[in-house]
Amino acid sequence: MARNVNFDPNHHYMEAGLESPMDEEGVHNSFHELIEEQTQNGGLSEALELQQLQRDFDEEGRDSVAFLSSPGRERWRGRQGQREDISEDDEDQLDPLIAERWSSATLRILSSMPSRTIGRSRGAIISQYYNRTMQLRRRRQSRPSIRDFSRSARPSIRGYGVETDGMEADNVEVSKRDHLVNNLQNLSVSDRVRMLRAMPLSVAEKSDLRRLALQKERRSFSHSQIPCCSRLKYYIIIAVRQSWYSWLSFLHSLQLWQVALKTVSGRFGTGVLSYFLFLKTLLFFNLFLFLVTGAFLVLPQAVHPPPPPPQGQVNFSGLELLTGGGCFSHSVMYHGYYSNFTLHKSCTDDDRLHNLSASNGTGAGCASKHLSYNMPLAYFFTIGMAFFITCIILVYSMSKSFGQSFRIDKSHSILAMKVFCSWDFKVIKKTSVKLMSDNICTQIKELLAEVNHKHDKKTVSQRLWRLVVHSLAWSICIGSTIACVVAIYYFSDYMHEDLRSRASSPTKYTLLSEARLLALPVVVSLINLLLPGLFNAAAWMEEYDSPSVRTYVAISRNLMLKVSVLGILSYHWLGRVAVEPQNLGLQCWENFVGQELYRFLLMDFIFTGLDTLFGEFLWRLFSEKVLRRSRRPVFDIARNVLELIYGQTLAWLGVLFTPLLPAIQILKLLLLFYIKKGSLMMNCQAPRKPYRASQMTTIFITLLCFPSFLGASVAVTYTMWSITPSSSCGPFRGLKTMFQAGKSWVAQLGKDNPNLSLLAWVHSYLVENPLFLFLAAGIFLIVIYFHTQVVDGQRKIITLLQEQIQNEGEDKKFLITRLQSIHEQKRTSNRRLTSQDTAC
Amino acid sequence: MGTTASQLGKDLLSEYQVRTSNAHKRFTELLSKEDKALPNPRIPMQSILTLPELKSNPFRKRICHVFSTSDMKDGSLTFEDFLDLLSAFSDSATLEIKSHYAFRIFDFDDDGTLDVGDLEKLVNCLTGETDDTRLTPDEMRQLINNVSSILEESDIDKDGTVNLSEFQHVISRSPDFVR
């Protein structure tokens, strides 16, 4: 079909003795050079063309009838004989630049254009990166020092940048490479590493460049007379850098679950992988929390245990693991165990007993004071610091992930993105590859239909029907959520009353009474398990504009359920139990709340594990044996991630009351990983719906930060600020609020040391005065407004630049057509000459 | 290019060295016995295509051609080429490198731009070999040439082809560019 339009540049190049652009070592910086070259070689090419004349003539003749089949080309059919008409050029410009009527020389020029060679020729890449390093140096304003110049470079008058001599025609590429190395050497280490990493050259090239850049550095250092201390500094820096790199590589090789994650992504793709990566992130958060609380709270208290409780020891029975009560109650696991005085090392037993009734502050009667450890203060500040650092890490990762998925310009290039970006090169298994191809085909067809039918107006009745269906589904979901929340409220009320009645009438401690405490967690976990299924069923009857909208709606419904459940539970604990603990006969309400959270966490884990193991397994058996379909259950990513977030919220709520809760959460996540992975491998198939992994990851991190972490920290802050701690246990006993521990310490500090009274004054004005908070919030809002204005301005600039590029494209087409017409004229005149010659 | 793994600079990250030695192991596994004695052995394309990562990949032949530096354009790879291939597909390659190589892989006729023919072949590779998953010529035309289509969305200078900068522009806007 297009046989005569020979796009193979090699063919002509071999003929003309020039190299093909793929092997090109030369650097073409401007079109001007190209044309110069062509005209220089004009004599040669003309001579050759006289030889090829017959073939070209045949080609040209056939050109006019050979067209690539496409509807836009119909116009060309009627215009064969008018090639030399200049007014034609105006209309030519409207058509794209793949007209088949170009001669071989024009095609040669077209295929060696800088925009087309940049992807292939090494010289072009080096030139491009030379420009980039130049810009980077200018931006960093690194003035090159005189001694670093190579002989051929001339320093500029301004002192910025390096102006070089005119390029020698035959050694263009070598000198460009030298300049690139020079630039690299003058960049800072991190910039250089980043530039080198980003260069799409072969590995050998890059190592050469690296070696040259460092060689010059070493050479320049040894040339000049550096004082010896600076050389020593240089060696120290090198040694530190080497050890840092070896530490990084060690860390890299230690990466947790690398093989497992690779298998999962190989079979199921990046969507499912993002769930497991999220699990890993949560694991690291909990590890951090555990290390902090362990080092500052658990360890000191474990080394100095308080005296045993008057009730005596309770024997270990298996139920403790589930309820968290029993013999665990008086252990380092719970808030009530912690002492409220300053711990001292090398105190004898007598002194410790002596200290029992002392309030916080300096403990009397102990010889050594320098190893004292103020436990209440430590507790308060550790929890505060842990939350603060977690907040910073969360906000940082959220903003980073948001920055990756947010784009300034609003244009939707959905089709192009789908075609260019959807192939997952990580998928290896043949069936998965086939599945991915099927998915992509379906998605492309769906997108095409969507794009083309966007303009179809739906009739009023259709829209009304859709509205009715949507509102029905939403009312089902909201209704069931409210029903469950009310149920939990009344059930917790019932349990509360039950506990109260049993507290007032003294009954013996039996296993059954402890097991009754498990009722509320079981009910809540059941609700968390069953209600999302109901939501899925309701969503099944709805139709949405696009699959992503469907996912978002599902996530928001699940989120609504979990937030309301957690809200009602927090009210129950902080609003009912904490306020009047004596009614329940509790010595220590913090211990009770801590145990409740432990039970909830554990029940959640047990139910998730059972659901995964049996639910998916049984569903697969059911669908294979009974329904006789080969469709396995799909791994519902959104639902699983929301369950992880729910568990993490419980853990954050519970850190204040149960400092060892992060450890339990770590164990739970580890086990969950293996359970989920095992079940996935055995029972599930990859999700059929398109999954935009990084946008989802952003959403999940945002959900982790906003409802989850924010809610937990609000609850903890409220507890610390307003609720009275219990009077007979815990590090804050006797104080009005937990916050007072910090306040009184600062006041004490001010009293003891008049120099630090400034700190006390600052503390009282900043932390307790709301005006400061309003001011800070106001400043933040102004900064955010400023940034949105900047983004708007950048959007406008992007539109302008796009128009400019379009205009440049027009110019390019114009020039090519002109070149073609000039070439035509030359050729026709040559042909006339030859025909005249042959005629004579 | 005569450098081997042992001659690459000492101040490279040791992680890089670990990766290189792994790659060397896999490379030598694919060599035939007589080739092992050669100083700079070259594996033919057929052997490369038996690697598990490439076996089912519809772009496997293009990948071999892109990374091959042989003069005969037969897709055979030396050890450096193999190392380039593995590092371009590894997790530590930057977005720039991956988009650069993706462009070259998608450029089926190696002319430096993605024109209509390249895009057609690309879509056919993506959607699979079987007839029921292929797009009809009508849909193909709609996808590539129409008013709201790939070319319309990504060709900024309106020359009818997608060159490297335009390709990288589309890629940078899509956070889901998977490797």
From TrEMBL, chain A:
GO CC annotation: plasma membrane
UniProt keyword Electron transport, yes or no: no
Membrane topology label: Multi-pass membrane protein
Pfam families given in the database record: TMC
Membrane-spanning residues: 272-299, 377-397, 467-491, 518-540, 552-574, 650-675, 696-721, 771-788
Ranges of compositional bias, category Basic and acidic residues: 72-85
Taxonomic superkingdom: Eukaryota
Stretches assigned to the TMC domain: 588-694
Main location as per UniProt: membrane
Family to which this protein belongs: Belongs to the TMC family.
Name of the protein this chain belongs to: Transmembrane channel-like protein
UniProtKB/TrEMBL annotation, chain B:
Domain called EF-hand: residue spans: 94-129, 142-177
Cross-referenced InterPro entries: CIBP (IPR051433), EF-hand-dom_pair (IPR011992), EF_Hand_1_Ca_BS (IPR018247), EF_hand_dom (IPR002048)
Cited Gene3D superfamilies: EF-hand
Keyword Phosphoprotein: no
Regions that span the bilayer: none
Molecular function terms from GO: calcium ion binding; magnesium ion binding
Keyword Calcium belongs to the record: yes
Name used for this protein in its record: Calcium and integrin binding 1 (calmyrin)
Organism listed in the record: Myripristis murdjan (pinecone soldierfish)
Higher taxonomy: Eukaryota, Metazoa, Chordata, Craniata, Vertebrata
